[in-house]
Give the backbone structure.
Amino acid sequence: MTNNPAFIITIDVEADDAWNGSTEVTAENAAFLPRFQELCEKYRLRPTYLVEWAMAQSPAFREFGQAVITGKTAELGMHLHSWTTPPHRPLTEADHRHKPFLIDFPPAVMAEKVKVITGTLEDVFQMPVTSHRAGRWMLDETYARILVEHGYLVDCSVTPHISWAGTRGAPGGRGPCDYSRFPEQPYFVDLQDIGKAGVSPLLEVPMTIVRRPRAGWLGRTAGLAGRSGLASRVVNRLSPEVTWMRPNGRNRRQLLDLARTARTQGRQHVEFMIHSSELMPGGSPYFRSRRSVEGLYADLEALFACVASGYDPMTLTEFHARVNRPATQA
């Protein structure tokens, strides 16, 4: 085993443009995944595809998933959108528009949805499913306990430095979550308080998000603007308060800087994420044209070439095997 940090690629594999409020669910972006997989294999990277219900029903994705499992070139995990995953127990007059968090539902319904999608994925792909990311990033203690009960080993829903206070699910629901004080480094979860390390078998692998100190007039303006209002939005556009290991079409330099500096910061891992629909022109609000997707691939090529040496490529479950369990659970 090396002392290199792990480079973990996570892909939320979900329906086309899941941000819109349409009741029509399509999965055309499954046809665009082989190109991404080929790029990963070019640099010997090992992605984890976190699969949502709609994509689990797609013949094109099933063929793709079988191929990467047979070739042992990737991992398939689970991603759960409550409004598409059975059993259907609507919380609103239009769940596709409100997109309730799973944690908005009663615990029994939460558990049944996890059971159904887990069983489906395991039946289709004939393999255990042990990695997970919550839909819309919303995890709580009840959800974590349900994951453990269904054999999950790894979660990657935590977004350090981020509060989702402005994000809404079902009106009057239990969300959203505030991860602003959660750890950046991986930890085994305390099932009574998921923001703390404990002795459960569930490893939390937080999304790689780092704070960026602002200098000069931007720093002074940010201090005066607070966290809301037009001035705050302008400052965040010019100089984001945090940097995600997530491409947006205009942040190649920040991604490369983060990849280069993470190794000197004592990080155990760097976690990259993207949505499968972002790989298809028009499949997301972020990459609407063929040209913008080609720009995305240029950014991915630069990033993957940067991390091809100095990092250990791992899937989420492979990383779980690397991290030492708490002594009381060894």
